[in-house]
Amino acid sequence: MGRRLVRHQTVRPVEDRDAQGLSPEDIADHNGRAVSALLLREGPMTRQELAARLKLTEPAITGILQRLLSAGLVCKGNRQTTTRYKAAEFALVSSGAYGLGVERCQNGGSLALCNLAGDRVLYQRFDQDEAFFTAVQKIVGAEMGFPAPIGVGVVMNADKDDAFTSTFGELPSFTLSKSEAVLAGERLFGIGEPEGGLVVVLIDDQVQAGLIINGRFYRGTHGRAGAIGAMRPGLAEGTLDMMASAASYRAFIAARGESEVERWIEQAASRLLDGVVTIAGFISPGAMLLGGQLPANVIDRLIEKIAEARLGKERYFVPAAWIPPVRPLSFPDRDAAYGAAIAPFIELLLPKSN
User: Fold this and answer.
1) Which residues contact 102 (CB under 8 A, 6 or more apart)?
2) CA triplet 153, 41, 199: central angle to 5 degrees?
3) Does pLDDT of 44 surpass 50?
4) Confidence class of residue 210 from pLDDT cuts 50, 70 and 90?
5) CA nearest 343: which of 215, 235, 201?
6) What are phi and psi of 105, to 5 degrees?
7) Counting Cβ atoms within 10 Å, is residue 135 exposed (0-12), middle (13-18) or buried (19+)?
8) Are the C-beta atoms of residues 213 and 287 closer than 8 Å to each other?
């Protein structure tokens, strides 16, 4: 597996010069998050390694580790060496915390429960509200064979629903758009967050995009950022939603049949390239990923056709050299509920964005 492109400054501890106005509890919380983030990214480390990487003293690291050990988030082991000396090393406990992610649809929805290693230990879909609500309540109440989650990430594809959110009990909840949920999963357990940020384009019933940069989601005015499905190359042309959405794919296949799928892929790739060039030419992200509610082979062909269309455009328009190639999502078989389940870890256990 390739090394994740994660920003190193996300694990910067609070030093004395940064501590003005912060309580000792705030400093301890931040530095505990910094240690957790480093262990998550690098794996088991000794006190000396943690102290060197975070530029903290070994006694300070010892205190931080003791708090994490007491919370059950970290375990202690011995590193095998060629000498008789065995250094104590520390690692995150995958079962030390769980996050619950839910995607609420008009009727029912999906849920995912993930551990600290990013493993999806439980996944369910429901077509009816009653069964969905009951399952969420059981997970929150630790009645499904796992400890209660530390929080809930919520993707709402329906109107605000107080009856649904009441199933979370006293757990903290974090609302995300579908693209933000996908970005959360990619940031922590997928491609990471490369320099320049990460863009995802999702082909669902509408085409939407999301951007995370410096650890923050970019939402734009009134949260409208990423609604690229309304884009069109001219007044006489159809929108991206009309030409390249999952809804347009289904309509095309129903009218023309599977044998004509390449025609839809060609038209969709051409339109998607316009969006890719527009977004990436200005933002210059470190990576662009494509996914959504299309068959995996169709997504793969779309990515290939986008690359071909880009080469074809160079006859009359040369895109900026820094525009990255489009790649598939790291978890194409997992829906937004998985990424939503990662949100509680980001919000409650890992360093907060500056």
Assistant:
1) 109, 110, 111, 112, 136, 152, 153, 154, 155, 337, 340
2) 55
3) yes
4) very high
5) 215
6) -105, 180
7) buried
8) no
Query: Rounded to an integer, what distance in angstroms lies between the CA atom of residue 27 and that of residue 31?
Result: 6
CB 101 within 8 A of CB 341: yes
Q: Could you tell me how many helices (H) and strands (E) the chain has, helices first?
A: 11, 13
- What pLDDT does 125 receive? 96
Q: What is the pLDDT of residue 3?
A: 34
The CA distance from 89 to 44, in Å, is 6
Q: Rounded to two decimals, what is the model's pTM?
A: 0.87
Token output for 180:
């933000």
Residue type at 40? L
Between residues 178 and 222, the one the model is more confident about = 178
Confidence of residue 132 (pLDDT cuts 50, 70, 90): very high
**CA distance to 195, 247, 264, 316, 327, per residue, from 243 (Å):** 32, 9, 8, 23, 20
Pair of tokens at residue 353: 């964005």
pLDDT above 70 (res 20): no
CA 155/CA 17 separation, integer angstroms? 39
Residues 6 or more apart from 303 whose CB is under 8 A from it? 290, 326, 327, 328
Q: CA 197, CA 183: separation in Å to the nearest integer? A: 10
What's the full length of the chain, in residues?
354
Residues 6+ apart with CB under 8 A from 195: 5, 7, 286
